[in-house]
Design a protein that fits this description.
The complex is a heterotrimer of chains A (305), B (296) and C (376).
Chain A lengths: L5 H29 L3 H7 L9 H11 L2 H32 L5 H9 L10 H9 L3 H10 L1 H9 L13 H9 L3 H12 L2 H9 L4 H12 L1 H17 L2 H6 L8 H8 L10 H21 L1 H12 L1
Helix pairs in contact in A: 1-16, 3-16, 4-5, 4-9, 4-10, 4-13, 4-15, 10-17, 13-17, 15-16
Chain B lengths: L11 H28 L2 E2 L8 E2 L3 H7 L2 H32 L6 H7 L8 H11 L8 H6 L10 H29 L3 H9 L4 H12 L1 H17 L1 H9 L10 H11 L3 H25 L9
Antiparallel strand pairs in B: 1-2
Helix pairs in contact in B: 1-13, 2-13, 3-7, 3-10, 5-7, 5-11, 7-10, 7-11, 10-13, 12-13
Chain C lengths: L2 H5 L7 E9 L5 E10 L4 E5 L6 H9 L6 E6 L2 E2 L10 E4 L11 H11 L4 H15 L14 H13 L5 E5 L7 H18 L2 E6 L2 H7 L2 E6 L2 E6 L1 H6 L4 H6 L6 E8 L2 E3 L5 E4 L3 E8 L5 E2 L5 E10 L4 E7 L2 E6 L11 E5 L6 E4 L25
Parallel strand pairs in C: 3-8, 3-9, 6-7, 7-8
Antiparallel strand pairs in C: 1-2, 1-4, 4-5, 9-10, 11-12, 11-14, 12-13, 14-20, 15-19, 16-17, 16-19, 17-18
Helix pairs in contact in C: 3-4, 3-5, 4-5
The chains are: A mainly alpha (305), B mainly alpha (296), C alpha+beta (376).
């Protein structure tokens, strides 16, 4: 179009520049502080230029803190969250879209409802369930009176106990209990032409073959998008890992990083080391974003529709 | 769907397929949600033991606690200020990035980075950057002592929280809004230009009305997000202080439940918060959602 | 016939539909009970307007839709409860429905792979079919890299590679442009001659139906209006619906009343001699109307379209619309009114109530076309 858009383009450029400074500024200050020595920071305050102590500070993280093993925990939590979410969501969306089942709508509504109430809101009672995942079963046995029956027959009521707190499973499972993935795959399946399904049926493909030969290869991009999204979400979780794991060796890196800051007010903590920790902890997800940006953006857009 | 007889008709396979996810969802979503409501009618002992039905006593206790009302009020203030900023800022950025200018490509890249930085991590960073003694404001503080004191002044602490929250919220809202802008057909701009609307005018008359669905969606999600995700920021930046001035409800529930071992009180507040979140979403869908569905 | 031709040759199966019906609930009956036999090796075109149930019928034969009642017998086997893969049918879809992530070769071989055919055998069959369809150079391409016509060929290849006894086509040509559609029509006819499978072809395009079909099955609201060869359907339409559906421009249908001596329009003009009494619908094709001085019928010209080879004249005949196609090269000099005559052998008479054709409506036997002279 022929038009004079100079003023608006200059304004837009300015806005974008400010936005980028807002985003990059804190990240840059993190990096520049992480490369100072503690003494320099105390003397000069905020460091505007990078120093030469980055490796020293990172070394401190490796030798003086549990961040390395906690990063390993984060990796396990994030990747199993991503993998489990992708697989389980794909399977349930597959069942909902491609099978003639009367309860498909109900199941989908039940799954979708999880989006409304995030884990952080229901953390208290989720913690209680995780401390004994058989507690609902026990309660059902008690309420229905089955336990009275069992108690009179065998002498004692059934009371099972299994805590998943302080386990990787316990850290991951409540994160997987979420509907976004199912929603995303369902939306994707509905965009596929119906004739594709019919053609596969004519070619003789049953449910399993159709899933592996047709649906999975076609879902690759959605799979990748969801994987990146849930990996990042698993890595950056805070409240659940904080309460779900009580020993430092089971905690995730983000929790460990927050624990580096001493609770006591007054003295200035070793910020350069903490910032080096922040750099390390954010390295994995940030490089993932850099490499797989396309999938992340796609995932964000898809999860909304 | 009507022509559903062409779907697979296996009986057990679909059940098998949804069972793993449904099991997790029932166990870690529906049971906890149910339990929060259930417990709000019982007095629970913190270390197990018997519980006692107390009717509405828990609600009476919670609702007569001024701290609860203060935390609730702060939650709403935070929700309104932080989430409107966290939508408005990405909206402006998205409109700018939608123009074909040199900066728009790098901006689209950079603006999603915060998605990779945990709330707690950026909380730690912001706590440092806005540290009154060594941070960004330290020089200013030396000139005017006490002008920036998030450790003492609740407003300063609250501002830091809002800034950190907006920082974290940019990627999602930016991406959604930009996608909405980019789905506006180009002919729409050409038509508006033929009608005499300049580029500034088109923002108001074409772009904003047409991305209302996305705007509405980001706002709905942002409300829930600001209620819950604030936890990591509060815990790492202010610890709820100073003097409880940044204790939002989600943080108070955590403190009551995990530090005070008041399970009944925490469950009751959880139940109230859930009802609030659901009611909020329902209202938004009922009142705003209806008006902004366009046929394209 | 070459060796390659004979390599893909199906054992054509007879298709019998016995009381086949489809209903979603008591109110929405898509197809009332239907009895039809499609002979082995026959090319049947199911023709009808959209929503007449023709695709549903095809999908029931394929096994993609369940029948609500009745039996489907393919090659002597009762199949209505079998899965698609056990019926021995193959299908060509409207939008090709090729697997976008597979190459042309993989697309065509997929059904063989599912059926457990060994890899070398698959390759051999793919090569044969590809050569037959002129796809040999494209075997390693993905569907996204092919033109519309090529994709259509792959879709056909995928269907015939199994040498199915029954080949089903669901409006396969509707996505192609006019030229390509014409070429593919010729190719399909040729292919059918060579493969010999019983073919069922669903379309709403009467040209496809007329040129491809051994017999045309015309569906209207799920009911069979007529099932016969293209010639019979054109010359002896069984109902007003068929008469209007076949032929372009469509047959003129006039409301007439018989008074024992003639069939008359509302203003009393006699358009044909007949001893019948009562209300009828009289049909005459536009190209059968004889226009020229001396004709007993008078019509008013509304407008004329000159198509070069001939003219289409739209006229008003006592308040009813009448289209006239002039013969090749004929010049009609009239400006506002037109004298016409309706050759009796060219007239079709339908019941005024039911719209069904009345056989031997006029005393003179129906003559063959060549004997008709055009009066000018």
């Amino acid at each position: 179009m022929i038009e004079n858009a100079r003023s608006i383009n200059i304004a837009a450029g300015l806005i974008l520049a400010i936005g980028m400074i807002y985003i990059i500024g804190p990240l840059y200050l993190t990096l520049s502080t992480a490369s100072q020595s503690f003494e320099d920071m105390l003397r000069n305050g905020l460091a505007w230029y990078p120093g030469d102590q980055l490796l020293v500070n990172m070394g401190k993280i490796f030798t003086e803190t549990r961040i390395p093993i906690q990063m390993f925990n984060s990796l396990i939590v994030a990747s199993s969250n991503a993998f489990a979410t992708c697989v389980l969501s794909l399977l349930s969306a597959y069942a909902i879209v491609y099978f003639r089942i009367r309860w498909a709508g109900v199941i989908f509504a039940l799954i979708l409802a999880t989006i409304m109430l995030p884990l952080d809101i229901r953390v208290i009672t989720t913690y209680q369930v995780a401390s004994n995942i058989f507690s609902p079963l026990n309660a059902v046995l008690d309420v229905t009176g089955l336990n009275l029956l069992i108690a009179s027959a065998f002498g004692a009521p059934v009371h099972l106990e299994l805590s998943v707190l302080n386990t990787h499973f316990g850290l991951v499972a409540p994160l997987v209990a979420h509907g976004t993935g199912t929603f995303l795959f369902r939306q994707f399946f509905l965009t596929l032409p119906k004739d594709l399904f019919k053609a596969a049926r004519m070619d003789g493909a049953g449910p399993i073959r159709f899933l592996f030969d047709i649906l999975l290869p076609l879902s690759r991009a959605s799979f990748a998008a969801l994987f990146v999204l849930t990996f990042l979400s698993g890595w950056t979780q805070y409240l659940w890992p904080l309460v779900g794991a009580s020993t430092p060796d089971m905690q995730t890196a983000v929790v460990g990083l927050a624990r580096l800051v001493p609770d006591a007010d007054g003295q200035v903590p070793d910020f350069p080391m903490i910032m080096a920790g922040a750099v390390l902890v954010s390295l994995v997800p940030l490089s993932m974003i850099a490499l797989l940006q396309r999938y992340l953006v796609q995932g964000l857009v898809l999860s909304e529709k | 769907m009507r022509s559903d007889s062409s779907l697979f008709s296996n009986r057990w396979l679909p059940i098998l397929l949804v069972t793993p996810l449904m099991l997790l969802i029932v166990l870690f979503f529906y049971v906890p949600v149910f339990q929060a409501f259930y417990w709000s009618f019982f007095l629970e002992q913190p270390f197990g033991g018997s519980s006692e039905f107390v009717g509405l006593d828990n609600f009476r206790r919670v609702l007569s606690d001024p701290e609860f009302w203060k935390a609730g009020a702060r939650t709403i203030v935070f929700m309104l200020s932080a989430s409107s900023l966290a939508v408005a800022l990405p909206l402006i950025l998205a409109i700018a990035a939608d123009r074909k200018i040199r900066l728009s490509l790098p901006a689209r890249n950079v603006l999603v980075w915060p998605k990779g930085v945990a709330g707690a991590s950026i909380g730690v960073v912001f706590a440092f950057i806005f540290n009154p003694f060594v941070g960004l404001m330290a020089p200013l503080n030396q000139m005017f002592p006490g002008i920036w004191a998030p450790g003492i002044d609740g407003t300063d602490a609250f501002l830091t929280l809002v800034m950190a929250h907006v920082w974290s919220g940019i990627p999602f809202n930016f991406v959604i809004l930009l996608a909405g802008l980019r789905s506006i057909p180009h002919t729409m701009y050409q038509a508006a230009a033929m009608d005499g609307a300049g580029p500034w005018r088109r923002i108001l008359d074409v772009q904003l009305p047409l991305i209302m669905p996305q705007l509405f969606l980001t706002l709905v999600l942002e409300f829930t997000e600001s209620i819950t995700s604030a936890f990591a920021l509060i815990d790492t930046i202010t610890g709820g202080g100073p003097g409880g001035s940044t204790t939002l409800l989600v943080y108070k529930i955590y403190v009551d439940g995990f530090r005070g071992y008041d399970l009944s009180g925490a469950s009751t507040q959880t139940a109230i918060l859930m009802v609030f979140v659901l009611a909020l979403a329902a209202c938004q869908f009922a009142f705003i959602g209806r008006r902004i569905n366009y046929e394209r | 016939m070459t060796a390659i031709d004979s390599a893909i040759r199906a054992a054509a199966a007879q298709i019998e539909l016995i009381g086949v019906t489809k209903a979603y609930d008591a109110k929405t009956v898509v197809i009332p009970p239907m009895d039809v036999v499609l002979r082995p090796g026959e090319f049947t075109v199911i023709l009808g307007p959209s929503g007449c149930g023709k695709s549903t019928l095809l999908q029931m034969i394929a096994g993609l839709e369940r029948v609500s009642g009745g039996k489907i017998i393919l090659g002597g086997r009762e199949v209505q409860d079998l899965e698609p893969k056990h019926r021995g049918c193959a299908m060509v879809f409207q939008n090709y429905a090729l697997y976008p992530h597979m190459t042309v070769a993989e697309n065509m071989a997929y059904s063989l792979k599912v059926a457990g055919v060994s890899k070398p055998d698959r390759a051999l069959r793919v090569a044969t079919v590809a050569k037959m369809l002129g796809l040999a150079d494209y075997l390693e391409r993905k569907p996204g890299q092919l033109s519309g016509g090529q994709r259509q060929r792959v879709a056909i290849g995928r269907a015939i590679i199994r040498e199915p006894g029954v080949l089903l086509f669901d409006e396969p040509l509707s996505n192609l442009d006019a030229q390509l559609r014409h070429d593919m029509r010729i190719e399909l006819a040729d292919l059918h001659r060579r493969i010999g499978a019983t073919s069922v072809f669903v379309t709403h395009d009467q040209v496809e139906a007329m040129t491809l079909a051994d017999r045309i099955l015309i569906l209207n609201k799920g009911r069979v209006e007529q099932f016969d060869t293209p010639k019979v359907i054109y010359h002896h339409p069984a109902s007003v619906f068929v008469a209007k559906f076949i032929g372009a421009p469509p047959m003129n249908i006039l409301d007439v009343t018989g008074d024992g001596t003639a069939l008359r329009l509302a203003d009393g003009q006699a358009v044909a001699r007949s001893t019948r009494t009562g209300r009828f619908q009289l049909g005459i094709r536009p190209e059968d109307v004889a226009a020229g001085p001396g004709g007993p019928i008078t019509a008013t010209i509304r407008y004329r379209e000159d198509l070069g080879s001939h003219e289409i004249i739209e006229a008003d005949l006592c308040g009813q619309q009448l289209r006239i196609a002039t013969p090749f090269g004929a010049e009609i000099d009239a400006s506002s009114t037109l004298s016409l005559s309706f050759p009796t052998v060219r007239l079709h008479l339908f019941d005024g109530e039911t719209g069904m054709a009345i056989a031997d409506a006029f005393e003179e036997p129906q003559a063959v076309r060549q004997s008709v002279k055009v009066h000018l």
